[in-house]
Write a structure and sequence with these properties.
Elements lengths: L3 E3 L9 E3 L7 H56 L5 H9 L5 H25 L24 H22 L9 H20 L5 H11 L1 H5 L1 H22 L6 H4 L15 H6 L29
Antiparallel strand pairs: 1-2
């Protein structure tokens, strides 16, 4: 088992962290693999609903597609990787001290690669091979234009991602109702898409934006920087807001004992990782903190079963 050291007592959500780790643990490898597959499915299925059917199902149908796909993924892979499938969510968990920087880097690589793979499948379907008509004209890429300015799109993406990531962090905390996190997260993604689709297509996910833009090229690719940067800003602001309204935590020294509790944020399950003592499940190992509220004595998984 890797050596551990407590984080500084001034931090929020303190835990014992590994000092060093060699290579990628099997648990981390599985988490990274499902993040790749999950992000690819989100792009292929949800963005695909716009590419192949936005004229038929409309904005509401596309928004529901995004929400339902994420809802299904949350229950399917949440216990493996936490079902981030979004670099902005991973940033939120990282800043919330739910994972290490190395783990987050692996997640980001998997998410962007998965989004590119999903977009490649869409490109194949809209080519001569698939014969599907791209009803968006740009493979579902995000962009600003007649309906919204560059500054407006940046502000919109920051606000929508702020709302989305804040919901994730709050409903996966211990004070939330067990078993309903996936439903709340799926509904939140649906809601932000209902607002954003008519304006810039809705990103709130840098990987979802980069994948299609790489194949659309042109203006969509030139403007994709905004849809990478703005969601990351929104995710970081969500962490600050959640910290401000969350119940204070105690450090290892204050608690006087290890307490096996979950970090706020979408994470991986504890059982297997506690046996291995490595990888992303270190963020599920016994934490050196305890809540000052009785409700925080309740232990549950951060993602729905």
């Amino acid at each position: 088992m890797a050596a551990r050291t407590a984080v500084p007592s001034g931090d929020t959500g303190e835990r014992l962290r590994p000092i060093a780790e060699v290579g990628m643990s099997p648990t981390l490898a599985r988490s990274v693999a499902v993040e790749f597959v999950g992000t690819a499915l989100l792009v292929f299925l949800a963005v695909g609903s716009a590419v192949g059917g936005i004229h038929t199902i409309g904005d509401l149908g596309v928004a529901l597609a995004f929400g339902l796909v994420l809802l299904a993924l949350a229950y399917a892979i949440g216990q493996i990787s936490g079902c981030h499938v979004n670099p902005a969510v991973t940033l939120g968990v990282l800043l919330g001290r739910g994972m290490t920087a190395t783990e987050a880097a692996y997640y980001w690589v998997a998410q962007f690669a998965g989004a590119i793979a999903g977009a490649a499948l869409l490109k194949l379907m809209t080519s001569g091979f698939g014969g599907v008509t791209d009803q968006t004209g740009n493979l579902g890429s995000n962009n600003w234009g007649p309906g919204i300015s560059m500054g407006g799109a940046f502000l919109l993406e920051v606000v929508l991602t702020f709302v989305f990531v804040a919901v994730i962090l709050l409903v996966t905390g211990r004070s939330a109702t067990p078993g309903f996190a996936g439903l709340a997260i799926g509904l939140a993604l649906t809601a932000v898409h209902l607002v954003g689709i008519p304006l810039d297509g809705t990103s709130v996910n840098p990987a979802r934006s980069l994948g299609p833009a790489l194949f659309a090229g042109g203006e969509a690719l030139a403007h994709v920087w905004l849809f990478i940067l703005a969601p990351m800003v929104g995710g970081a602001l969500a962490v600050l807001a959640v910290r401000a309204i969350s119940v204070p935590r105690l450090t290892a020294e204050q608690a006087g004992a290890d307490v096996d509790l979950d970090e706020t944020g979408a994470q991986v399950p504890a059982e297997e990782a506690q046996e291995a003592g490595t990888g992303p499940a270190d963020r599920q190992l016994p934490r050196a903190r305890a809540s000052v509220e009785e409700e925080h004595a309740r232990h549950r998984n951060p993602t729905p079963n």
